[in-house]
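Figure caption, in words: inputs first, then the predicted bound structure.
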Amino acid sequence: MARIAVAGFQHETNTFAPLKATLADFEQADAWPGLTEGAALFEAVKGINLPAAGFIEEAASLKHDLVPLLWCSAQPSAHVTRDAFETIAQRLIGRLARERSLEAVYLDLHGAMVAEHIDDADGDVLARVRAAIGPDVLLIASLDFHANVSSRMVQHADALVSFRSYPHVDMADTGARTAALLHDLLKTPARAKWHEALPFLMPLTSQCTLIEPLRSLMSTARNLERDPVVSLCLTPGFPAADVPECGPAVFGFAREADALERAARELAGAVLEREPEFGLELIDVEGATRLARDADIPRGRPIILADTQDNPGAGGNADTTSLLKALLAARVAGVLAGVIWDAACAERAHAAGQGATLELSLGAHAGFPGETPLVARFTVERVGDGRFIGTGPFYHGGRFELGPMALLRTGTVRIVVASRKQQAADGAMFRHVGAEPADARVLVLKSSVHFRADFGDLASRIVIVQAPGPNLADPARLPFRKLPPGKRLTPRRPSAQ
Ligand SMILES: [Zn+2]
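Bound structure (zinc ion present):
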């Protein structure tokens, strides 16, 4: 039995997005708990598809003694403010410094956090924890699939373990794998490390592990992770981050350096061989509207339009309206859209009450250039308090707190509105206000890939739409300044035969 400190500090930073993450954003609950310190942490994450939850359950079943420090996350956005980062990091280190006779520390990190004053914020957290515990206490962390893994992160950790799926249906499982690995490392450490940055950026929508090429590349990664290699990871990275170590990486930990190098090189080589397959397939607003209007769509099998560039799970604000306006103007039948972040409209809908009709100016409040609100008369079909439980594989068990919500109808379009922004990746977000996704003809989702976990089986067709928004689908359009020379902003095309 070992004494293991447990902490989590998660943020995915889109350095090109308009709004920063403040301390209040970390304190507030969304689908996941707000900032929680001490013993309350165990209850806060229990039963949720989160790495910390899986780690705690597995480590407890292995009879380890767990010391809860703190856990927090905020919605993806622009930089974490200096104040938020320093406040949380200092509380974490302060709690850690009070603990004696620890044998290990587990961190539930995202891996793509950028603070106003620190490009590699996760590397900084790991370095500060390492400085606090010294070289002999084990330090292990789980990471998101979208981690931009830096050499500094690898340097300060005894092991890192990343998700293997996107949609991330294995978050809790990754925590459990991390606990099992730590249990093993407490008996026999693994000193060899490897970290290799791959030379191109992978567009987010090409990173889905349900489709090729990552479906088979992830199974290659899984097969190569075998004794003496204790952890071998492929992270596609989070491309919307102007930091020197943005992008995909292969990294690992082992009890034998040569075996690790062989496995890591084989994995990196396999990815590079399939680089052209990571190219984008996008459709513009006009094309998507035409398709949605004219397609012969079977009942119960909606076509899904993924509004990826306004995905709040990647720094968007779930409030752009261009696609909705186009669908309305073309009188596309049976549209259900969500989830739009607009607290003022949700409040007015609640005040008016179910069945009321009122004029609203919906969305476009975050100030994305060129976007204007959708001004129309809406009928309030249903209202909800925004408290419900996630039922899909991604947000499974998440105790949502999205504030007042409403289902609004105008013309042929029904829109789910919430007071807090959250990626549309769970059917419960619609059913909470009485909208059944399967009944729609056209489902418009503010999501890039995570929606596939709960809506993918439903869809007769999925198209990725390039409507205006801050999460640019094509990394080549982002104004990078800090990437190293030679990094390809877009996957290389197949070479001409
Ligand atoms: Zn992710």
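The pocket of zinc ion is lined by residues 144-146, 168 (CB under 6 Å).
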